[in-house]
Specification:
By secondary structure, this protein is mainly α. It is built from 10 helices and no strands. α1 (6-28) packs parallel to α6 (103-111). The longest helix has 24 residues, at 56-79.
Length: 192
């Protein structure tokens, strides 16, 4: 399919709508952003926007599904692997990359936590996090090592959400958080 085909253009428009909506939701809040404002920022008519999405929730759910697909694929892969240190390091590396690729979504989630609890995707996020925690946790290790494993996952979240304003570029911050997360998982396995 060439990039000028109708399907490719429709796909690009859909992605542009998602990107602009996430940007506005993060800036103004989900509740305070209207479909009209999204259409205006895109410089399209409201009818053109309705062609792709009927509601704001449709936009956020589609963006969520598209931007978190790598995390679902990662979980599927990890569940079939032995729970080795190498597998856990790979989970952290791939999760960090998936979060970076979906950073507008994670910014939206951080800025709109109350909305996230109300939307159907909030439950999906929670379920994924619990699954990742179980994949990373040392099964029979001491409690301190289990805390290290869980902390490794949340170190990646801290790097994405709470260290955005630290000096340096976002990729350096992501790499630093990944290094700390990897140290935590490694330390948990060395003690076990």
């Amino acid at each position: 399919m060439s990039s000028s085909s109708p399907q490719a253009r429709r796909g690009n428009t859909r992605q542009r709508i998602q990107d602009v909506a996430l940007e506005l939701f993060a800036e103004q809040g989900y509740e305070k952003t209207s479909l009209r404002e999204i259409a205006e920022r895109l410089e399209v008519t409201k009818a053109a926007l309705y062609y792709h999405f009927k509601t704001k929730e449709d936009i956020i759910i589609s963006a969520f599904e598209d931007l978190t697909r790598p995390i679902d694929e990662l979980i599927d892969w990890a569940e079939r692997q032995p729970r080795t240190l190498e597998m856990k390091r790979e989970v952290l590396r791939r999760y960090s990359e998936a979060m970076a690729a979906g950073s507008p979504l994670y910014r939206f989630m951080q800025e709109n936590q109350a909305t996230m609890r109300e939307l159907s995707i909030g439950e999906t996020v929670k379920r994924r996090l619990f699954t990742l925690v179980e994949l990373l946790r040392t099964e029979d290790g001491p409690l301190t090592d289990q805390v290290r494993c869980v902390s490794a996952l949340f170190t990646l979240h801290a790097g994405m959400m709470f260290l955005q304003h630290v000096e340096g570029n976002p990729e350096e911050t992501r790499q630093a958080a990944l290094e700390v997360a990897t140290d935590l998982i490694t330390q948990a396995h060395q003690a076990s």
